[in-house]
Amino acid sequence: MINANIVLLGKTGTGKSTIVNALLGRDQALEGKGKSCTQENKTYSLAQQYNFSGGSSDWLEMKILDTVGLEIDAKITKKTLNDIKRYIEKASAESETDINIVWFCINQECSRFESFELDLINEMSIEYEIPFVVLLTQCRGENDELEREINATIPSIRTFNVVAKPIRIRNGFVIEPFGLDEALAFSIEEYDKYKVKLLNQKLLLLEQKDKFASDIRNDGEGIIQKYSRKARKAARFSVLGLPVILTYCKKMIFEINSLVGIVDKKRMTDEMISSIAAGIVLSLPMVVPIFGKMMAESYIESIGESYLEIVIKAYKESISIDDMKRRIISEIDRRNKK
Q1: I need a labelling partner for 26 at 20 to 30 A (CA). Which of 191, 222, 262, 322 fits?
Q2: Is residue 195 one of the residues assigned to a domain?
Q3: Model pTM?
Q4: Are residues 223 and 182 in the same domain?
Q5: Which residue has the higher pLDDT, 265 or 54?
């Protein structure tokens, strides 16, 4: 048996509900002409025999999530994306072998591919690990420019031209439905290959982030040495007081923070230095509030190295690089064996 979960996503007027009705073979979802008829995210179910292109067949259990138009309202859009995330997480938890895919609908008559659509596809496909297919809907004629723009912007994504219900145009000519069967066949029969392709993309991004963590360490050590040399140089000419050393520490932490995009705030920096220094002071011979050359250098290096380790650990744990890489590699191997 084939279990498939299809999420229909896109702006208002892209024909998502029309696609639902075409898949179901009956008018169950309300349709509108350029207006939103879908006021809430709704799931539809379909069970039927599916015939593979190779001649074999299997029973298909399909769920279709019809979503509200993305630009109707910011709160609704946020709710839609959260609902999709929960829907995908629930479907993935129920079975690792299920087909989970998003059909992103774009009206073929649109003049261009919106930047927010690009960002949404890139972010959701990678974060949720769910393949996206673009459906250019309501195809009354050719719009090669839009299709070329999409393929140039996201070359890894598959695009289909679709007419979900007959379109009557001038002189009584009717454009009959096409493209939907091809999109469904691709989503079912090529899913594992398409998913592996997406997972390899995410694996590459994780490796880049892993390298970034290494770069953070190298750059952070360079920053620590820079302020260590400054303190050593300043202490050659006079004994340094604690306020001077702390000023160096604050500047050093500010630069380390900038490596990972942390917005620095004075109060936060002061609290971090106090927390780190509390342990270091107990382990170093610094019971007097004045510092010679060696002592100043050692103090700054200890503060810097302790803080750098905290930053790198927090960065790695925030994206769970190692665990995520192992899980993705395991899934790629499993899907390649199918």
Answers
A1: 191
A2: no
A3: 0.70
A4: no
A5: 54
Q: Tokens for 50, please give them.
A: 């599916």
| Both structure tokens of 212 | 């970034």
Report yes or no on 199 lying in a domain. Answer: no
Same domain, 177 and 50: yes
pLDDT of residue 109: 77
Determine the Cα–Cα distance for residues 248 and 286; give it in Å rounded to an integer.
17
* 32 and 150 part of one domain: yes
Q: Which of these, 75, 71, 7, 77, lies nearest to 34 by C-alpha position?
A: 71
Is the pLDDT at 193 greater than 90? The verdict is yes
* Mean pLDDT within 293-306: 84
Q: Which amino acid would we find at residue 311?
A: V
Task: Give the amino acid at 109.
Answer: E
Question: Would you state the pLDDT for residue 292?
Answer: 63
CA angle (95, 97, 101) in 5-degree steps? 95
pLDDT for 277 beyond 60: no
**Cα gap 276→306, rounded to integer Å:** 7
Instruction: Tell me which of 40 and 230 has the higher pLDDT.
Output: 230
Number of CB atoms found within 10 A of residue 329's CB: 13
Q: Is residue 310 classed exposed, middle or buried when 0-12, 13-18 and 19+ CB atoms within 10 A define those classes?
A: middle
